[in-house]
């Protein structure tokens, strides 16, 4: 995820968390004093709903051009690979929702003898504060730690996940793969040590590339070894884009609709 998007996601998530915490610790007491009582309940629910819906909606507006990722790759600086940049969409929504939900774990109590609300005067308060702190830390890790990445070279495909990296040679991919591309993930089947079948899941929501385009290209290179040497060059990238565009014009719309709702067919090697 680009640095600017990391700042944006962090700001939106923590801002939403702070707004909901203020609602709980400051505004809630005012809502309780309202008459009739249902008006306070309605305002309390309404302010929470505005933040819970408004923050993700604002993020969706900001990332609207990323919601339909492009059918192309980025060339590596050395010209020896195609790389897929990270997308802020999947990790961003995950992190923001985690931080918003964390606000509902903030401990509070009515201050004795007053009509104010505050943090509990309890020796276990540090442990209680860990309840909202944990999802916030997880959200920040999603945003700031290295996310999903993909690199295609003449030798094979490298899939980078936060906790593990797979390096799979083109000849190791099992015939007929990858599995039909889905909106959120793609599964690669390959031969592991001892020729045992293994799988690697690629989370598409974290990548800025069209899922069907990526699946089609991977299958193409697995089946057509003569084209692998051109990976990383501008000419090869143009060939892939042109071939995929021809296939799209010839009937991809139905497949694209399937990809949005579930699985989409992966084109065979011929379109490229």
TrEMBL record:
Keywords: Membrane, Transmembrane, Transmembrane helix
Top-level taxon of the source organism: Bacteria
Transmembrane parts of this sequence: 37-62, 82-105, 125-145
Protein's recorded name: PH (Pleckstrin Homology) domain-containing protein
Species: Dactylosporangium matsuzakiense
């Amino acid at each position: 995820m680009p640095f600017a998007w990391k700042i944006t996601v962090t700001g939106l998530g923590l801002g939403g968390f702070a707004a909901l915490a203020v609602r709980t610790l400051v505004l809630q007491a005012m809502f309780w004093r309202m008459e009739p009582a249902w008006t306070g309940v309605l305002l309390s629910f309404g302010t929470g709903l505005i933040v819970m819906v408004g923050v993700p909606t604002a993020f969706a507006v900001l990332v609207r051009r990323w919601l339909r990722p492009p059918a192309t790759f980025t060339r590596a600086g050395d010209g020896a690979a195609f790389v897929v940049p990270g997308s802020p969409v999947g990790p961003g929504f995950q992190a923001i929702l985690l931080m918003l939900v964390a606000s509902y774990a903030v401990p509070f109590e009515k201050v004795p003898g007053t009509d104010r609300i505050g943090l509990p005067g309890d020796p276990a308060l540090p442990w209680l504060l860990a309840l909202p702190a944990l999802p916030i830390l997880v959200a920040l890790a999603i945003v700031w730690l290295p996310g999903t990445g993909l690199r295609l070279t003449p030798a094979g495909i490298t899939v980078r996940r936060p906790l593990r990296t797979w390096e799979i040679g083109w000849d190791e991919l099992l015939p007929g793969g990858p599995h039909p591309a889905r909106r959120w993930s793609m599964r690669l089947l390959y031969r592991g040590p001892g020729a045992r079948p293994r799988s690697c899941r690629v989370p598409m929501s974290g990548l800025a590339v069209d899922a069907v385009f990526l699946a089609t290209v991977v299958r193409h290179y697995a089946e057509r070894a003569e084209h692998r040497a051109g990976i990383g060059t501008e000419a090869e990238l143009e060939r892939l884009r042109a071939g995929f565009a021809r296939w799209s014009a010839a009937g991809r719309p139905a497949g694209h609709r399937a990809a949005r709702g579930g699985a989409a067919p992966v084109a065979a090697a011929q379109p490229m």
